[in-house]
Amino acid sequence: xxxxxxxxxxxxxxxxxxxxxxxxxxxxxxxxxxxxxxxxxxxxxxxxxxxxxxxxxxxxxxxxxxxxxxxxxxxxxxxxxxxxxxxxxxxxxxxxxxxxxxxxxxxxxxxxxxxxxxxxxxxxxxxxxxxxxxxxxxxxxxxxxxxxxxxxxxxxxxxxxxxxxxxxxxxxxxxxxxxxxxxxxxxxxxxxxxxxxxxxxxxxxxxxxxxxxxxxxxxxxxxxxxxxxxxxxxxxxxxxxxxxxxxxxxxxxxxxxxxxxxxxxxxxxxxxxxxxxxxxxxxxxxxxxxxxxxxxxxxxxxxxxxxxxxxxxxxxxxxxxxxxxxxxxxxxxxxxxxxxxxxxxxxxxxxxxxxxxxxxxxxxxxxxxxxxxxxxxxxxxxxxxxxxxxxxxxxxxxxxxxxxxxxxxxxxxxxxxxxxxxxxxxxxxxxxxxxxxxxxxxxxxxxxxxxxxxxxxxxxxxxxxxxxxxxxxxxxxxxxxxxxxxxxxxxxxxxxxxxxxxxxx
Length: 505
Ligand SMILES: Nc1ncnc2c1ncn2[C@@H]1O[C@H](COP(=O)(O)OP(=O)(O)OP(=O)(O)O)[C@@H](O)[C@H]1O
Ligand SMILES: [Mg+2]
Fold this sequence. Notes:
Oligomer: single chain
Bound molecules: adenosine-5'-triphosphate, magnesium ion
Structural class: alpha+beta
Shape: elongated
Largest sheet: 7 strands, mixed
Distance between the termini: 34 Å
Strand content: 15-25%
Radius of gyration: 29 Å
């Protein structure tokens, strides 16, 4: 189910995204703020699994409380959790299955799993295809490693029409219009100049006075200004460009000269868009019109101004081999578009994770159930009081299939019993909760796939945050308003930097 978050001034956010829910919550308790951090870290590091990470942290703390009641010392619990987390990571690594990072069909299954839990389920197949195509388009190999920078996929939200009209543009869409009415609204075979300089007469830095004594002098002054602007426009013409994107402003007279030559321009671009345009079209951003030449230009099949609703947008379509692309998200209402944007973010991130690591696990609580089983076997070998903590950790992992069962309206106890029985046989390692049939099934066969990285990060973030909270035995009000009123952690085995980060524990 989704959550409707209502702010004090009545703003409404409808979402299923753990990171967004945690970010929007009005959290007062300092320990609860740590959980918000968990969601943030998870979102920044891997982009999905935020709800799972928060659920696991909560569960680890709950189980720890029961151990504390039995007089197990917090440091023993923390040690046990650390051992369990190391082992869990090993188990998960062993479970991970290799995939071919360019296999679009598998990547699509991963994207569909990430979106299946969101409000956009109806259009998940369509949006998953867009996410996979976008991620594969911006994939590059650096130092022998495959990298996907999801920031190179620009997501532009425009409400109206429906989710199925969401479009992947192999180029960049800019939320601005062509700067002069007489400029062409459509340019085929675009030769693109990216300019980071004003096309204006520079004002002097200090006040200067010019004495003009006759109308002739006045005319000469204005003519000279016009000549300078024409010279700038001529430099653009000489370079062979037929479309200019300018990060600064452009004088009306310069616009006029450009329009006369059939050159279009968009002014006051954001630097982010300029960088993406450079990536997408192969153009170089130059700092002066004098530096423009045929080599600094980029290309695209067509640039056109299009009206969506009340807004005019400029579409740069079909650049040769665009290393940056745009997804224009459409949807019935603003809330739908917002949630689609968040789901698309999750989908892009999981596809990136899978492409970069080339390893996946099945979902539906299967890896958690299998990890729990193997952790129990490991706990016996460790023995002592730490064994209790490792067993508690294993039980906490099972909260994931339990929560899935509960959310699907199933009986958690029945499911848990069934799941444990199935996992006794190592062949059945992918048995998890099939939320649709309400049975315990092989989720790998059901194509519920998730990147290994998400599961590994869940264990990391949750253990770090839970351990940090367990190490605190007192909350003291500190003076001043700077910083959270929590001890910053540290000490042997403590949190580096005081925050649950992505580092190894
Ligand atoms: N079709 C399915 N059947 C069973 N389980 C599924 C299915 N699709 C997804 N899941 C499971 O649902 C869980 C993910 O749920 P959800 O996406 O709501 O939370 P999250 O990924 O932890 O956090 P968030 O997406 O909010 O960042 C995973 O354990 C995943 O394996
Ligand atoms: Mg998810």
